[in-house]
Amino acid sequence: MGRRRKGRKINGWVILDKPAGISSAHAVARVRRTLDAAKAGHAGTLDPLATGILPVALGEATKTITYLVEASKSYRFTVRWGIATATDDAEGAVVARSDGRPDGPAIRAALPAFTGEISQTPPAFSAIKIDGKRAYAIARADGDPKLQPRKVRIDCLELEEVVDEDHATFLVTCGKGTYMRALARDLARALGTVGHVAELRRTAVGPFNEEMAISLEEFASLGHSEAALGHLLAVETVLDDIPALAVTESEASRLRAGQPVPVIRSANQERIRDLADGAVLCALSNGKLVAYTRLEGRQVHPVRVLNH
After folding, report:
1. Shared-domain flag, residues 20 and 123
2. Does 123 lie in the same domain as 221?
3. Which of 22, 141, 243, 261 has the smallest count of CB within 10 Å of its CB?
4. Is 274 left (phi over 0), alpha (psi -120 to 50) or beta?
5. Which helix (H) or strand (E) holds 152?
6. How many domains does the structure of the chain reveal?
7. What is the CA radius of gyration of the chain?
């Protein structure tokens, strides 16, 4: 038997506009097949119901996913007041109803309590593990997953529009681990009613936004072509907000071998002047990302090495 082809070595990011009705894993698989890429992953799962920004990492870009997961994310979502579901979105069975319908002033008055660092209990139907089992698996088996509240960060929460008596649309910018379904559920309760997410769209992840995105249908139509590769962003794009250090080829070789290098150039000294030990920096050689590194004293130590 012949050995199975592993695909092409393609490094970079494709910023996908995920359609509703498919999982994030399925969307990533479509991108990988379109490019015949050897390796692919994504930063931040979107529920099948949700649409919007799904950054797909290819090749060496998968090594930088950790930093994108930590990045802020922005969403637009619509709450359906008066109906609670088992999944806290439109796909779940109805579990409660209420005649309560908040108006614009009441909604705006409630928002400050959901801004900043707040305590949030994830939805029962979530991928969080409890004693080795996913919460959604326990819930689907008619169990009661005991999910603990946790701290999440909401930087901005705005009422965009009161669509009608039953619906209102919100804009959110938040930190990692924040569930829009839980936010909709808790906001409805605070307003004396129940509710669920009727529509959800992610509009930004870190440096990636809707202007950079391509629809899955359009991308898949390009096939194994140069046009498809034209939508590939450089690996280092995700690290744009991390300080960069210039290293020589010999220093780059040392970093690739797992060895630290001293920070001695005047330009590099300027960049690290206000940074504390433990700060993360990008090491670049000839404009290419070599590694992301950790500052310790006057040296940087490789944390993750990239091989373009």
Report:
1. no
2. no
3. 141
4. alpha
5. strand 150-164
6. 3
7. 22
> Which amino acid does the sequence have at 263?
V
Tokens of 230: 């034209």
Is 6 a domain residue?
no
Respond yes or no: is residue 47 known to be catalytic. yes
Structural domain includes residue 3:
no
Could you report the per-residue pLDDT of 127-163, keeping only the tens digit for each?
Answer: 667 666 676 676 676 666 677 889 999 999 999 999 9
Q: Are residues 78 and 193 in the same domain?
A: yes
> Of 17, 36, 47, 164, which one is the catalytic site residue?
47
Distance CA 61, CA 95 (A): 42
CATH code, domain carrying 246: 2.30.130.10
Alpha carbon distance 120, 175 (integer Å): 12
Cα(198)–Cα(50) distance, integer angstroms: 10
| Max CA separation in the chain (angstroms) | 70
Strand partners, 232: none
CA dist list (Å): 120 to 45, 149, 150: 18, 5, 5
Q: What is the CATH number of the domain that holds 142?
A: 3.30.2350.10
Q: Where in the sequence is the domain holding 252, given as residue range(s)?
A: 242-305
- Residue 264, pLDDT above cutoff 80: no
Cα angle 92-98-99, degrees, rounded to a multiple of 5? 135
Q: Using alpha carbons only, what angle is made at residue 196 by residues 191 and 202, rounded to the nearest 5 degrees?
A: 110
- Which among 59, 58, 50, 55 is positioned nearest to 68, based on CA atoms? 55
Give yes or no: residues 146 and 200 share one domain: yes
Closest CA to 52 of 25, 18, 21: 18
Reported as type and span, the H/E element at residue 65 is helix 65-69
